[in-house]
Amino acid sequence: MRETLSAEAFLSESIRGIMIDVRSPSEYQAGHIPGAHSLPLFTDAERAEVGTLYTRVGKNEAIERGLAIVGPKMARFVQTARKQAAGKTLYVYCWRGGMRSGSMAWLFRTAGMSAVVLEGGYRAYRRLFAPLLAAKPWQFFILGGFTGCGKSDVLRAMARKGEQVLDLEALANHKGSVFGALGQEEQPTTEEFINRIHASLRRFDPAQPVWIEGESQTIGHVVVPVELYRMMQSAPLVLFSLDPEARLQRLVREYGAFSTEELAAAFAKIAKRLGDGYPRALQSLEAGDTAGAARIAMHYYDKCYTRSIGKENHSFREFFMPEDDPERAAELLIEKFRKIK
Question: What's the predicted TM-score (pTM) here?
Answer without folding.
Answer: 0.92
